[in-house]
């Protein structure tokens, strides 16, 4: 198996305070995980109450930037519908500086219409418009970061226009934080990833569908003439236990069935999880985002760090 980096991925909209996220992030850092990521959502999903309510992704990461020291920090995925591109570029650059250069910018078009309605956020009716806005935002954010100090940045798009500006502040990482683009779109997503992304991520798909998405992006990278390497990664829900009873207990705690999780996630004993991760490594995944849904169960993180991570490095 090629070297695999394991990253913790959380869904705070399901119900988590900043203090809970800080506890998990510090545990992930202490246990040797490569990164702590969170979603960017303002409304819970499914049969949970979401109490005490959502936390903002970039405010959370700003806090974690000052309270951790090694672990990398990022989003899967920041929604382009939530923020204007100029202020977002400033926020991410600032958090990158606050962290000493540990930010990774996962960025997506936005999709969850109900959360926009719940908080009065405009939601373009058509997927085409959402992607058009998303593409312009990618141009603007990466353009602001990469403009040399002392030069100005101007942009004239259909949806966004920026006058001559100083394109400040700059991120700590030069020329920019790594950009992640994800999803299984057939045409635009691979093209945008080839043009803008340092990493392409496929979330919650099986081996065959993940491989097909990787291949589409590899083809787009080749067609673009790009020479910089692309990192390929996958995200899967985690449910690992020392034995069948522990796996069943953890599945019940997140409202899932063991058989379904074994089919659609990383579930089972450490040996079973290692085997499944190995299958993703074989198709080219270099990073695995472990979606941890029970944030009170730090023993889960310890088990994977102790019995899975050493076998996939």
From TrEMBL:
InterPro entries assigned: F420_OxRdatse_Rv1855c_pred (IPR019952), Luciferase-like_dom (IPR011251), Luciferase-like_sf (IPR036661), SsuD_RutA_monooxygenase (IPR050172)
The UniProt record lists the keyword Plastid: no
Keywords on record: Flavoprotein, FMN, Monooxygenase, Oxidoreductase
Record has ATP-binding as a keyword: no
Luciferase-like domain residues: 9-252
Name of one Pfam family that matches: Bac_luciferase
NCBIfam families, alphabetized: F420_Rv1855c
Name of the protein described by the UniProt record: LLM class F420-dependent oxidoreductase
